[in-house]
Write a structure and sequence with these properties.
Radius of gyration: 19 Å
CATH architecture of one domain: 3-Layer(aba) Sandwich
Largest sheet: 9 strands, mixed
Helix content: 25-40%
Strand content: 15-25%
Strand order of the largest sheet: 1-9-8-7-6-4-5-3-2
Distance between the termini: 14 Å
Order of helices and strands: EHEEEHEHEHEHHHHHHHEHEHH
CATH topology of one domain: Rossmann fold
Shape: globular
Structural class: alpha/beta
Length: about 325
């Protein structure tokens, strides 16, 4: 596997190129084309590394976790974006596990298989407290947090509010650097209309069109299964209820609205920012904004890649991730 060594004093973004072929991010188990370990000339493993799934109770809430490896390197917590679940981290979990790390992907409370309580105070402070509590339950003092999109914003909130628990940060096309859009704020403003609005968004044509926007080459990645996943998120009543509750509290889920964005300058942990250069969800210039606002952050831009680098450009993403971890002394 190619590792990209990200220097501590890196000035300006590093530009990487995504190969012109499908990546390992969505390949079925047993298909090793594009596997980073094969790329380095190593034979593919006889079977994918087994991931262990379990539920962990934190502050009375059940969180679903998917875990690989038990190595001595600093543990790695992976937080997903919307609407996908921890399953989309499997190739990264397996790579980290084979490389000597204990890697744990978590379904964010309110999403995936984790609890979706109707009375939870969904906010950045709430999520950050739960992730710090998760470390306590797992017996971990610190962890590297890797967050994609909405998960990136949650990782930032955790690092700001619980700085001693976050060893380093990796942010992929992170939320938090633009105002919360109207379509997120609207459903909670008018309960019945908002419920209908979310239901209408679950139409397969609308789900497919939104997913096409998220990928540079959607024809390779927007499968019927992925469209169905997006539909399920919006059609299941418990999921819609959580989205309504978060919409009602949109200021509490906004870095700017909570005052946390102004505190980004307090961050002292090593931070790597990775962005798809063709992202049409969060435009790539936001990666540069994030780099300027986070002290010492390094930025990697991946060409021919949209909003999901760990799916659409898994090889360069994995190279950047592993280079960052090893350069930081966690090999």
């Amino acid at each position: 596997m190619n590792q990209f060594v990200i220097g501590q004093h890196q000035a300006g973004p590093i530009h990487l190129d995504a190969p012109h072929r499908p990546q390992d991010g969505l390949h079925p188990a047993g298909n090793h084309e594009g596997n980073p370990s094969v790329e380095a000339g190593h034979p593919p493993p006889s079977s994918p590394m087994a991931c262990r799934s379990s539920f962990v109770v934190v502050d009375g809430y059940r969180l679903y976790t998917l875990e690989c490896g038990s190595g001595s390197g600093t543990p790695v917590i992976l937080l997903q974006g919307f609407p996908v679940s921890s399953d989309y981290w499997r190739p990264t979990l397996e790579l980290l596990g084979r490389s000597g790390y204990r890697a744990i992907a978590v379904d964010t409370p309110g999403f995936g298989r984790s609890d979706k309580p109707a009375r939870a105070p969904y906010s950045l402070h709430f999520f950050a407290r739960l992730f710090a509590g998760l470390l306590d339950v797992l017996g971990l003092e610190q962890a590297t947090f890797v967050g994609h999109s909405f998960g990136g914003k949650l990782a930032l909130a955790t690092a700001i509010l619980h700085p001693r628990r976050v060893r380093r940060l990796v942010l992929l096309n992170s939320d938090g650097f633009i105002p919360i859009p109207l379509f997120v704020r609207f459903p909670g403003s008018l309960a019945h209309v908002g419920e209908l609005f979310l239901w209408l968004l679950s139409h397969p044509v609308l789900v497919r069109s939104q997913m096409h926007i998220a990928f540079h080459e959607p024809e390779r990645y927007v499968t019927p299964e992925m469209v169905q996943l997006g539909r399920d998120v919006l059609r299941v009543p418990e999921n819609r209820r959580v989205l309504m509750l978060m919409s009602l509290r949109f200021k509490d889920n906004d870095l700017q609205g909570t005052g946390l964005r102004a505190r980004l300058r307090e961050l002292r942990c090593p931070t790597l920012i990775i962005w798809g250069q063709q992202d049409r969800v969060f435009p790539p210039q936001l990666g540069e904004v994030a780099r300027r606002e986070i002290p010492g952050a390094r930025l990697v831009m991946i060409s021919r890649c949209g909003h999901f680098p760990h799916i659409e450009a898994a090889r360069p993403f994995h190279g950047a991730l592993m280079g960052f971890l090893s350069h930081s002394g966690d090999a």
